[in-house]
Amino acid sequence: MNAQYKKGVLELCVLKLIQQDDLYGYETVQKVSFYIEVTESTIYPLLRRLTKEGYLSTYNRESNEGPPRKYYSMTVEGEVYLATLIREWDQMVDSVQRLLKGM
Questions:
Q1: How far is CA 32 from CA 6, 66, 100, in A?
Q2: pLDDT digits (tens, 9 = 90+) for 35-76
Q3: Mean pLDDT, rounded, for 13-41
Q4: DSSP line for 13-61
Q5: Strand 23-24 to strand 66-74: parallel, antiparallel, or no bridges (unpaired)?
Q6: Distance between CA atoms of residues 66 and 42, nearest Å
Q7: What average pLDDT does range 83-87 have in this prediction?
Q8: Of 40, 53, 43, 41, which Cα lies nearest the Cα of 13?
Q9: How far is CA 73 from CA 7, 33, 90, in A?
Q10: Distance of alpha carbon 29 from alpha carbon 44, whole angstroms
Q11: What whole-number distance in Å separates Cα of residue 17 and Cα of residue 101?
């Protein structure tokens, strides 16, 4: 996949996955990677930025497999932002589809 396409859509994908269920960092990488090939070095900075901007919040949860994990959850601001991103995405996809089909 074109790196620029991927970069532009990752924020939307990460927010949508976390809206569905609180996730820890590596789990987020795995879930996004099911659809789009990504690395930890791409996702972790994105999670930090989205948290800093107030769209995500974090909490620690004990793990059976080692130290507690930092989980990310959606904030109210994140819900509003995600809805905006989805609207913008739908408009862009519609416009590009019309252009490609010559309508």
A1: 11, 23, 27
A2: 999 999 999 999 999 999 999 999 999 988 889 999 999 999
A3: 96
A4: HHHHHHHHS-EEHHHHHHHHHHHS---HHHHHHHHHHHHHTTSEEEEEE
A5: antiparallel
A6: 24
A7: 95
A8: 43
A9: 21, 19, 24
A10: 8
A11: 31
